[in-house]
Amino acid sequence: MFALADCNNFYASCERVFNPALRNRPVVVLSNNDGCVIARSQEAKQLGIRMGVPAFQIEKLLTDHQVAIFSSNYALYGDLSVRVMNTLASFAPSIEVYSIDEAFLDVSGIREEELEPLARRIRQTVLKNTGIPVGIGIAPTKTLAKLANRMAKKTREAVFILRKEEDIRKVLSETSVSDIWGIGNQHARFLNQHGMVSALDLTAAPDEWIRKNMTVVGLRTKKELEGTPCISLEEMVPDKKAICTSRSFGVPQKELQQLEEAVATFTVRCAEKLRQQHSAATKIMVFIHTNAFRADQPQYARNRVITLSPPTNNSIALVKAAVAGLRAIFRKGYLYKKAGVIVTDFVPETEIQQEIFAVQASPRMKKLMESVDKLNRENKTTVKIATQGSGRDWKLRQERLSPGYSTRWGEIMAEGNCEIRAYSYSI
DNA sequence: TCTGGGGTCCTAGGACCC
DNA sequence: TCTGGGGTCCTAGGACCC
Description:
By secondary structure, the chain is an alpha+beta fold. The protein has helices spanning 10-17, 42-46, 59-64, 74-89, 112-130, 142-154, 165-174, 185-193, 199-204, 207-225, 256-276, 315-329, 363-376; strands at 2-7, 27-30, 37-40, 68-71, 95-99, 102-106, 134-139, 159-161, 242-253, 279-290, 301-312, 336-348. α4 (74-89) runs antiparallel to α5. The model is unreliable at 416-427 (pLDDT under 50). The protein binds a DNA duplex through α8, α10, β9 and β12.
């Protein structure tokens, strides 16, 4: 049996933990650049605010209902996530942290009548320890646990056990295919076209047909819905196979120099992530593009892949390559909205094929990077590469950022700087 | 005016090998 | 006119997730 614990309206709940004045008030959290709504409190959902809607399109609604609006504060959400996961981990022999706000727990071997009390206990403890409300679904497969979790939300019970065959049948018949974990937009439409509307309809289709039309991935989903586990608990977080750092700019950029500073900064971030997992990259791609939403402006989008020889995780070498790539694709006369860097084709850093005359992989360079990482642990801007520049002309728009309550000494909640603010939307 | 960021897996088809 | 059989590796594109 698997339990799926899912934080309710996670980012919105995080904002509330340190700001009780927000209770019972509609709260939304915006994506980077204060662009789209990416989290909504229950009250905000009831106002009809849809997931992913651009904030500017619902400006009036937000003002009229005094919705509290926040820029995303990933330092805060990441920190609270760790606390939630630590609490969850104390309840099960193994746990898979599936995303920032979700975890699967192994609850096999627990007597049927014990499942619900356990779930309630988990929920109470997480709430007490962190202030974050979670919903819990329990079922024989991960896909069914996802459905159970959905039912927990739907019924407002916060806990839902899906075990008996007749219960499973009933839930499947009431769930549309688009609400199944693993069935996205394309497949949902495809299934509908073939007359399959509910999850139960999907389970009635022949295996071979599913396999032919939806690959083995679709077949696994079907089996999981039938109660046969095909997706196991992944406790170990595997190393990444690709690492990407990209941002949209608060203000469109037209000069090469600003783009170079941004690309250098993204590259350094990728290099840090590479070193964290002890990988070195063989390829680096840099991309830039204009704002595709602006049909009235000239459009331009290019990327360039550069092969790194030898493979490296050295910030200096990577920045050199990325900037060279950028210079090759940059064209004057466009308003660039976004840039990014992706590193791929990793090898373990201990297995880099050395080349004659290679400076980058020298032991001194490795030590230098280690020292830089150490110095930057507290503050990311302690040591920078000159190409990153000193300004951040390309920075994000973040006009409604909440304090780093739990991650920055200067912003911690304490007498003297305990200023509880209620934000309302006005431009 | 204003529209996010970061990943994974699978398959088909082409290039290439003997 | 006729034109083999069997394999691997790589990549692009499409699907999905949060």
